[in-house]
Design brief:
With about 350 residues, the protein is an alpha/beta fold. The chain has two domains: about 220 residues, Rossmann fold; about 90 residues, 2-Layer Sandwich (Uridine Diphospho-n-acetylenolpyruvylglucosamine Reductase, domain 3). The protein is built from twelve helices and eleven strands. The strands form two sheets. A six-stranded mixed sheet has the order 3-2-1-4-6-5, with helices on both faces. The chain is elongated. The N terminus is likely disordered.
Length: about 350
Amino acid sequence: MCDSSDQAGDCGSERGILRNHPASARILRRWRELTGGKVVRDSDRRTVVACSGGADSVALAVVLACVEPKPTLVHVVHDIRDDGSAEVDRDAVKGLAVQLGCQFDERSVLVKALGGNLESNAREARYAALCDMAAKAGAGYIATGHHSDDQLETVLMNLIRGSGVRGMSGVSPKREMGTVHVVRPMLEVTREEIEVLCGLAGASWQHDHTNDDEGYLRNRVRHSVIPVLKEVEPDIALRASGLARSSRETSEVLGNLIDDQIASAAVRKGTEWAWEREFLRVQPAACLGELLFVYVREVLSGVGADSIGRRAIDGVIRGIKSDATDPRVHRVGPIVVHVRAREVVISDT
């Protein structure tokens, strides 16, 4: 097994991980970058791996199991599937934990009977369960198996829905959830590399048949769009990861600019932010669009940001910059923007 003091990412394992394989070294290096960098010892990076049983999370578990202390493999059983396959996946992950010498934990969540968006409810319940299991394991990090093909799918979906630079940022490599951070160290690893790692480790994986249902946009993109793109450019997934990284950096710079020059100029009363309309009228459109997300982040703790669509943002920008003086009300996701003759007000009601 790997020497836990090895910070270079070389991974030798009696279980079949090829020593110095570029993909596993890249995953370990990125995991270390996302969990504190070179100043943190591996023993202080306690991590749970969100393992569904699919190839991506199996590969992540195999690679991180090269490090001491080994990660805990955690699994969430949803009630969405009724054919017993959820239990099969759970048992496969439990078996992988035994194979790798890792601890295992599981939670069951009930979301099928809830109102609203099923996918959104399942995601929220899953992450709540993962945070609970991470706390139980004394881990500060939850590692997920999102990879470059997932990043490509996300970027394309955001493009289809209509998105600016924020949407082109795709899946974030790190996300804070209370006292725990979700980290995604495989965003620049391809699906092909993942399957190679599983093969080298002698680790099998499960196929989730819900991923075959093209009633979901992501599955349609995965099965109908991406194969064509890969025929044109085999490295398109890695190209998308690079675009997402650049867009994320641009979005961060833009966000800092807005914090320093625009959001700070607001007159704030409770959850209400107000500006002279002429001040906002002369700002770049990109800044006005991003300002809505800054408000949601600071006032609403990010809740509802996913429901802010590009069309609504463009409507607000046009309203602010127009010469019209009659008052208008724009509802954008969880917020309301009042555009008046001389004033613009953002509030949550």
